[in-house]
Amino acid sequence: MINLVHLLGLEEGGWGVALLLASSVTLALSVLGFLLGAVFGAAAAAGRLSSRGIPAWLAHVYGTVFRGVPDLLTIYLLYYGGSIALTQIGKFFGAAGFVGLPAFATGVLAIGVISGAYQGEVYRGAYQAVDRGQFDACKALGLSRSQSLRLVIVPQLMRHALPGLGNVWQLVLKDSALISVIGLVELMRQAQIGAGSTREPFIFYVAAAALYFVIAAVTASVFRYGEARAWRGMVHA
């Protein structure tokens, strides 16, 4: 017990501060990746719902590829593909040597691309769940397409989307641990460093699991609160 307190303590010689800082990196990575994924997902959903062939086809390919390819492979492809492109650009301007993409930015992009493929399906399903009468009401009121989406359709769409988005968030949080393979020191990587340095892998991996659980529980409650408020607002309306 004394050894546990010493290893995970916040005082000098303990790993508590390092683990908490790594947790903040995990949280920032996940939030930014999820938000970027929302942009990709909205574009993918719009493409899937489009009556035009090319946008619908591109959105279908995007969703199929990034939901089918292993997440770790996507991370490697983005990191090494982007680094090769940067290296070639650097050589064109006279730079020498390998130029690697920043690990954090690559992680945000990778999580955004992956989660966007899932969020696109969530938004598409939520859009189709909105009662058709709402669209007729918008036309009857003379609202433009942008006004209809902003004032009527999107608020109702989000009520249906929030449960699915909560599931995608949990996926994003777990995928953040994979970004350590390209050198980012997030929670999982910090736990590995601590385990290797102290030869106490069980303690550090249990601590990492506890921190992941705390992050997941707190953020899940945020989604549940948002979902409850959204449906209460619809009932009162």
Automatic annotation (TrEMBL):
Gene Ontology CC: one annotated term: ATP-binding cassette (ABC) transporter complex
The keyword GTP-binding is assigned to this record: no
Cited PROSITE patterns: ABC_TM1
Transmembrane segments: 20-45, 57-80, 92-114, 202-223
Subcellular location: Cell inner membrane; Cell membrane
Record keywords, A-Z: Cell inner membrane, Cell membrane, Membrane, Transmembrane, Transmembrane helix, Transport
Membrane topology field: Multi-pass membrane protein
InterPro entries in the cross-refs: AA_ABC_transptr_permease_3TM (IPR010065), ABC_transp_permease_HisMQ (IPR051613), MetI-like (IPR000515), MetI-like_sf (IPR035906)
Positions of the ABC transmembrane type-1 domain: 23-224
CDD domains the UniProt entry points to: TM_PBP2 (cd06261)
Gene Ontology terms, MF aspect: transmembrane transporter activity
Pfam family, one: BPD_transp_1
UniProt similarity note: Belongs to the binding-protein-dependent transport system permease family. HisMQ subfamily.
Protein name: ABC transporter permease
Organism: Rhizobium pisi
